[in-house]
Amino acid sequence: MRILPKSLAGRTILVLLIGFALIQQIGLIIHTINQMKLERIEDERDMAMRATIIYRHVAWAPPQDRAAVAAKEVVPRDDRLTVSPLPYPPGSYPLPLRERQVVVASLIATGIPLSVRPLAINLRAEGVPVSAVVISFALPNGLDQMPRRRTLILPPPDGQRPPEAEQPGPPGPPGPPPPMTMAELPKNQLWLTLAFRLEPPAPWRSPGFATAFIVMTVLGAIMIVWAVRRLLVPVRTLAIAAERLGRDVANAPDLPERGPSELVTAAIAFNTMAARIRRFVEDRTFLLTAIGHDLRTPITRLKLRAEYMEDDEQRMKMLADLDEMEAMVAATLVFGRDITSSETVTRLDLPILLRTILDEAADGDPEHQETLAYAGPDHLPIRARPLFLKRALTNLIGNALKYGDAARVSLSQPQKQLVQIDIDDNGPGIAREQQESVFEPFHRLETSRNRETGGSGLGLSIARNIIRAHGGDILLLNRPGGGLRASVSLPI
User: Fold this and answer.
1) What is the rounded distance in angstroms from the CA atom of residue 280 to the CA atom of residue 341?
2) Is 470 exposed, middle or buried (0-12, 13-18, 19+ CB in 10 A)?
3) pLDDT tens per residue across all 492 residues of the chain
4) How distant is the alpha carbon of residue 110 from its chain centre?
5) Which candidate, 57, 109, 47, places its Cα nearest to that of 83?
């Protein structure tokens, strides 16, 4: 299986889409991590607020009723609420600094009335990583223990002292001294301990997050596909122009010289190259036709002089050679006219054209009328240059009739915007290594397919040039049952 697409556009789109997907994945991971951190901070703040509300309820109650009030508080199933002399549950450890700062800041921001402020607050954690936050409040036992200015966060047992949070009170007379440290608290001091369970952060909490991610990915993919196809249009245009130039040098249009500077430079270079190739072909064709035209006069003089030769045998040989030279010159002039002339492309019916050529061949050679046949649809319109196409098909059918004693033409239905014409004969065929070289100008086989050599060696070359100028091609194939097949493909 091919991993990379065949086209440049497909490969570019694939690479950009893979890179875009990786960037989206990295962005998604970063966003998820930040989202989980924010959710953890929100959960810790929510726990601090709930702890403050529950502490208010319990602290406002008389000391003897606080346990009963605490038992009536509604807490989630996984949370715990106790009133006991223990400052923190066994097995817990000091809460990490970041979480401790968030909880302390939330407790201070929530605000506890001065009349019921705790003597001390202790923050602990359970589980590794932190799965529960334990907040312990030292309950005041009387008005003489009520702090007025600040709340002290007791240092954890490991000796690390967390920061103190200042809580300014309303203006008034100075209150009692600051709250006591752990060592100064009474032995029978009661602690309100709340253990809040921390659920793992849900990275997909937002219901529209997945939809937004999919929409952004689809829009990005659409933009990539559109941009790549748009940017590669000049490359496709250059390929089409090169193909047209290869098919028809004389009539191929120039590339438009507009767009970005790089494309303008490439278009100018291509048009300059096309002009040089066109000028070279024109110069070669002009030289060829000029020589052929100039040779006609001396050939005519030689034929006149040959008539006065006394030796009849030598006279006949010389006239035969001159006739052959004249035929070659005439074919050369036809070849030059086919290259330099331009005929308008029109709509024509290909079956009618083929039957017309076969009828003309039968009129010119009545002895082989029975070996001429046509098979295919009655009507099939195509766009072509009528005279040029007729000359090419006439050459092929004439060769089949002359060297193969038959010309059976079959026309197939169009496939992939191409129509195929097969011309079969009864000759001996052509060796595989010479099936391409016979299309070269003036090339003739060393041994013809019958006793009469004939021909100038330009018929197949002219036919291929015309067919390729139409965007098609010609192939010669030896048929398994004998004979040669000239297969012509033409666009419709």
Assistant:
1) 16
2) buried
3) 467 777 778 888 888 888 888 888 888 888 778 888 888 888 888 888 888 888 888 888 888 888 888 888 888 888 889 888 888 888 888 888 888 888 888 888 887 877 788 888 888 999 888 888 999 888 887 645 554 444 445 544 444 444 433 334 344 444 444 444 455 666 678 888 999 988 877 666 666 667 777 888 888 889 988 888 888 888 888 888 887 787 667 777 888 888 778 888 888 998 899 888 888 877 777 777 777 777 878 888 888 888 888 888 888 888 888 887 887 777 777 666 665 556 788 999 999 999 999 999 888 888 888 889 999 999 999 988 888 899 899 989 988 888 888 899 999 988 888 899 999 998 888 888 888 888 877 676 644 443 345 556 678 888 888 888 888 889 999 988 888 999 999 988
4) 56
5) 57
d(CA 485, CA 406): 11
Two tokens at 10? 């497909």
Rounded CA-CA distance 276/118 in Å is: 98
Tokens of 154: 């007791």
Side chain identity, residue 48:
A
In this structure, which amino acid lies at residue 479?
R
Sheet of strand 93-94: strand arrangement = 80-84, 191-197, 132-138, 121-126, 93-94
CA separation for the pair 393, 422 (Å, rounded): 11
Q: In the beta sheet, which residues pair with residue 108? A: none
User: Using H for helix, E for strand and C for coil, what is the string for the chain?
Assistant: CCCCCCCHHHHHHHHHHHHHHHHHHHHHHHHHHHHHHHHHHHHHHHHHHHHHHHHHHHHHCCHHHHHHHHHHCCCCCCCEEEEECCCCCCCCEECCHHHHHHHHHHHHHHCCCHHHCCCCEEEEEECCCCCEEEEEEECCCCHHHCCCCCECECCCCCCCCCCCECCCCCCCCCCCCCCCCHHHCCCCCCEEEEEEECCCCCCCCCCCHHHHHHHHHHHHHHHHHHHHHHHCHHHHHHHHHHHHHHHCCCCCCCCCCCCCHHHHHHHHHHHHHHHHHHHHHHHHHHHHHHHHHHHHHHHHHHHHHHCCCCCHHHHHHHHHHHHHHHHHHHHHHHHHHHHHCCCCCEEEEHHHHHHHHHHHHHHHCHHHHHHEEEECCCCCEEEECHHHHHHHHHHHHHHHHHHHCCEEEEECCCECCEEEEEEECCCCCCCHHHCCHHHCCCCCCCCCCCCCCCCCCCHHHHHHHHHHHCCCEEEEEECCCCCEEEEEEEEC
